[in-house]
Amino acid sequence: MKVHRSLAILSLMAMLLMFSIPTASAYTFGSTNLTIVSASYADCDGDGFQDDIRIVTYLELNVFYLESSLEWYLYMYIYLPSGNGYLIKAHFISPAVDQYLVFSALNTVTEQGWYVIRAHAYFNDYLNSFSTSVYAFDPPKKGGNGAPSVIVEAIPA
């Protein structure tokens, strides 16, 4: 009788343990990072003025995604030396692979001095994680005229 009771308790504990172990989810633990690799002035729009900013970022997935795509939001601030600036807001559904993203911020170099770029990325993943990166550079001279705009290129890593 005592053996049957012990077996029943042991069986009950095994069943409880079996149901309490988490099942495999869509992700494993890790982190997702967006890093500004470089930023420099350039003539990205071919207007003859080096009044554009070429920003190279790297999206690094230190986590395994079972899904083929990753949804995320980007808020990139470009601060001019005067304190004024530009905001780039974007929503991405990109392949869930490490990749470079190249942003061409057209007609945004309008002042001499240090420019600061701050990028905040919010990932719609299992942790609702985020990443922040900052980069500063000093273009050599004032740029030309034109309306600010952005071009984005995705390059698989």
Oligomer: single chain
**Succession of helices and strands:** HEEEEEEEE
Largest sheet: 4 strands, antiparallel
Poorly predicted sequence stretches spanning 5 or more consecutive residues: 12-29
Describe the overall structure.
There is one protein chain. The protein has about 160 residues and is mostly beta strands. It has a single domain, classed as Immunoglobulin-like (Sandwich). Helices cover about 10% and strands about 50% of the residues. The protein has one helix and eight strands, in the order H-E-E-E-E-E-E-E-E. The protein has one helix at about 1-20; strands spanning about 30-40, 50-60, 70-80, 85-95, 100-105, 115-125, 130-135, 150-155. The strands form two sheets. Strands 1-2-5-8 form a four-stranded antiparallel sheet, with no helix packed on it. Strands 4-3-6-7 form a four-stranded antiparallel sheet, with no helix packed on it. A hairpin with a 6-residue loop joins strand 6 and strand 7 (about 130-135). It is elongated and about 45 Å long. Residues about 10-30 have low confidence and may be disordered.
Main attributes of the structure:
about 160 residues, mainly beta, Immunoglobulin-like, 4-stranded antiparallel β-sheet, about 50% strand, elongated
